Amino acid sequence: MARFIALAKQRIALTAESDLPEIQAWRRAFGKMGLKPTQYRCASEALLRRLRKEGDLPSVHPLVDLCNAASAAFAIPIAAIDLDRIDGNLQVRPAIGTEIYETFAGDIEHPEVGEIIFADESDRAHARRWANRQSGHSAVMDRTTHALIVAEAMHDTAATDVARLIATLRTTISVLWPCATLTEVQVP
């Protein structure tokens, strides 16, 4: 993780996180959704901003820490979701507004109509604003044995950069957790 943090620090030493093409693409997408880009930052921008201000990222869980460090290094949002907390299939879709979203503090919210969410078959939102705001309900914790890792990008070189990110995560996870079984799914 130190290697990822060092890469992220190098990037933000040269330019503000908000000027990175990866972040600019999310800001445009959020703007098209009617969200203020400085009020609703994508996950990687929030991590880079925290890294710039505080010099490090908080420790949450080893897998989450790895994903956060990689997200900062690549400036690409990454979500880690506990699959055992998902009811049935997970679908990325616009919210209808009745879905249940649990914050990390345990508060219940309902996503805005049309907001892009990750919802399961019981209409629970496990992520909001694509994968940029994860639910406390399905957060990776010590109990987690099956995790879904999602990387999302919209910038011009997103396909190449996400493929490189996934390969890097795959290698790193295999080294850190040699008994882990990894399955890759590409979504267009």
UniProtKB/TrEMBL annotation:
Residues 24-171 form the B3/B4 tRNA-binding domain. InterPro entries: B3/B4_tRNA-bd, Phe-tRNA_synthase-like_B3/B4. Gene3D superfamilies: Phenylalanyl-trna Synthetase, Chain B, domain 3. Coiled coil: none annotated. This is DNA/RNA-binding domain of Phe-tRNA-synthetase-like protein. It comes from Variovorax ginsengisoli. The lineage of its organism: Bacteria, Pseudomonadati, Pseudomonadota, Betaproteobacteria, Burkholderiales.
